[in-house]
Structures are given as C-alpha cells and as structure tokens.
Write a structure and sequence with these properties.
The protein is of the alpha/beta class and 369 residues long. The chain has helices at residues 58-66, 111-114, 149-154, 165-168, 171-183, 199-210, 222-230, 244-250, 269-276, 299-303, 320-328, 334-337, 347-355, and strands at residues 20-28, 31-38, 47-55, 78-86, 98-101, 129-130, 144-147, 156-158, 191-195, 214-218, 235-237, 257-262, 277-285, 308-311, 338-343, 363-367. The chain has 13 helices and 16 strands.
C-alpha cells in the first residue's frame, strides 16, 4: 500500500474556499488522493455536518488495499461532528448540535428485520452518509458529510457536552463488537480467547470481559500484548512462540475455550480456532469478510464435535442505545485505545500506519481542524 497511496498538496491543513472542502478520495486500488471537492448539497429531511474526527477501520483498509469498491468515492464511517445546515422538515437536530452518526440503518419492516438480521436488510445495505462524490460510502475522510433522511431520523445521536468527538467515533465500532460478542453467546463465567489485539480485537476482548467472561488473548506484537493486559485480559499469548491450543487447554481442564473470537483475517486461523474451542464451543469470525477469501477446516470439528462457526457483520440497531451509553458514560476505555492522530492532509501516512501497524499502534484517527 505504501507504494500506491498518494497525497497531493503540502502536508498541512488548508482552509477550504467558499463552497469547497478537502477530502481524501479513493481513486482506485491502493490510491487515496487529497483533493478539493464541492461541499455536498442537502435536500428535504437531510442535514450537513462538519466532520471533527473519523476513525480508520480495517474495512476501509481492505477496500482501499484490495480495490473492493468502485472509484471514485470518499470512505470513512466512524465519524462525529457538528451540524452546520439542516434541510426542510428536520426537527431532531439544529445547527450547532454535536452528533455521532451511523452510516447504515435497517428499514425495520422486512423479512430480515423481523428476524433481527438487520445487516441483511436491503435498506441497511444502502449507505446513508456521503461526501457527495461518487458512491455513498461514509464520507468521513472529507470535511463535510451529508446525512440522508433515514439516517437523520434513526441513525444519528446527539453527543453529551462532556464527550469528545474522538470518543464518539467509537460508538459504531463498539456496536459492531458488542453485536459480535453477543452473537457468540459469550456468557458470564465462560472462558474466551480473542485472537488478534488490534483495535477491534481489543474491543472484542474488553466487551467479552464486560459480559462476564474470563478472557485470554493472543497477538504476535509485544506492544499489543502489553496493552491487552492493561485493558483487562487475564493472560495474553504470543502465537509465534507459544502453542495456543496447549495454553488454553491447560487453563480449562483440557476442554478448550467456550468461545474463540477471531479478529485477524487469516484463513489459517479458522482451523486453529476450531481446534482451540471445546467440543460444542463456538468460533466467531469477525475479520473474515473478504469476498474473495476461501476457508477450509476439518469437517469433523463441526459434524462430530458439534462446534459452531458463526459470523457477525456490521452494527445492530438494537444495540445502538447501549453502545452509545458504553462510550458516553466511559464504561469502556476508548480514549486510551487511540494511539495516533493525523490531520486530513496526512491521510496517506495514517492509512499506511493503520495497514502496517508499529508496536505501539492501536486506533488511528483522522482529525479535522
């Protein structure tokens, strides 16, 4: 990625001209270019907000690195900011309100919504935030974002005065991780292993502990292992020098983990996670959302040992209020998960660090002056 992500213009913030804004534009596989674009126009029921902060998600990295989406467009969906314009009919928010916004919201009435499979709803798959350029895809890597009516009504939350914009960017990823932990049916007193302690793996570990489990973790980076212990893991293993299956079985009477949450997009980790799980246990694949990747595993682990393979994708509207409360009430240490902050003009550097983390890299956030 370092060879193809581009940055245009000097590496310092530039004031936008009237009706113009700066944005990191995805221009094709591996290419993000800082450009000047028109500020989006809004219509009835919509609003415009100025982005204050936007987290870089692993999904953004995959889309950019592998070219999974059509160019051009502006990515970034973990975003918070201030309302600067409201369209006719908007009553929930006014100019000056500080908000955090989801980018997907289900219709609430279809076959999938009735079954709480919100991320499979056709309406959910329509992105409701855009920088007004190319296909809607969040837009948080731009200075201004247009929110569509269904997002304004059901997917946007006002921020308490004491909550920073940087903290607010965690509301969406906390929701996705809370949904995953509950999809894995993590329960009080269970033993859970979280494979991978990047920012998402760290949230999965913290939330599994929040649910009452005894949580172990693994990561090959010493800095991340140390951070995981700081944030509450019981023990953290080095998968390079330690045998995870042996370590977990020694701590569970030979059974294995009740649940294994996999936060690293590696096909080789699926059979390993199944081997670590006890008979009848669960393996939750959080990072395996690549449309090209193929997975393989011993059939007997599922067909004989009755282990379950589960998937979890995106956020749940049912967890929207709770995930916001977890962040707003500071019941989770989200501020401490931010390791690096970059201005928009240095987005190339930020994306490179997020894609190829250093020992001290956790969450990388783009901040707008």
């Amino acid at each position: 990625m370092s060879q193809t992500i581009e940055q245009l213009g000097p590496p310092q913030a530039q004031p936008h001209h009237s009706g113009k804004m700066r944005a990191g534009v995805y221009r094709g596989k591996g290419r993000v270019v800082v450009e000047t674009l028109p500020i989006p126009e809004i219509g009835e029921g919509e609003l415009l907000f100025r982005v204050a902060a936007c987290g870089i998600c692993g999904t953004d990295i995959k889309k950019i690195h592998h070219g999974f989406v059509a160019a051009p467009q502006v990515l970034g969906h973990e975003l918070a900011g201030t309302v600067v314009k409201v369209g006719r009919g908007v009553t929930k928010f006014k100019v000056g309100d500080r908000v955090v916004s989801f980018h997907h919201i289900p219709c609430g009435d279809c076959f999938y919504c009735e079954r709480k499979l919100f991320s499979q709803c056709a309406g959910y798959k329509k992105t409701g935030l855009t920088a007004g350029f190319g296909d809607p895809n969040g837009g948080g890597f731009a200075e201004y974002v247009r929110a569509m009516p269904w997002i304004v009504e059901r997917g946007m939350i006002a921020l308490p005065a004491e909550v920073s914009f940087e903290e607010a960017t965690f509301v969406e990823p906390v929701n996705t991780c809370l949904k995953a932990v509950r999809k894995a049916r993590v329960a009080k007193g269970e033993t859970v292993l979280v494979i991978g302690q990047g920012p998402i793996g760290m949230l999965l570990m913290i939330l599994a502990k929040y649910e009452g489990a005894e949580v172990y973790a693994s990561d090959p980076m010493a800095g991340r292992r140390a951070a995981s212990l700081k944030f509450g893991a019981k023990e953290v293993f080095d998968p390079v020098t330690q045998n995870l299956q042996k370590e977990v079985r020694e701590r569970t009477g030979g059974r294995g983990a009740d649940a294994v949450l996999v936060a690293v997009p590696s096909p080789a980790l699926v059979p390993e996670a199944l081997a670590i799980a006890r008979p009848g246990g669960r393996v939750l694949l959080f990072a395996h959302n690549d449309p090209i990747m193929q997975l393989g595993f011993p059939a007997a682990t599922v067909g004989v040992e009755e282990k379950e393979i589960l998937g979890s994708y995106s956020a749940s509207v049912d967890d929207q209020t709770e995930s916001a409360a977890l962040v707003f009430e500071r019941r989770l240490p989200v501020r401490e998960l931010i390791s690096h902050r970059f201005p928009l003009e240095r987005i190339a550097e930020a994306l490179e660090l997020a894609a190829h983390p250093a020992e001290d890299t956790l969450k990388v956030v783009i901040t707008h002056a």
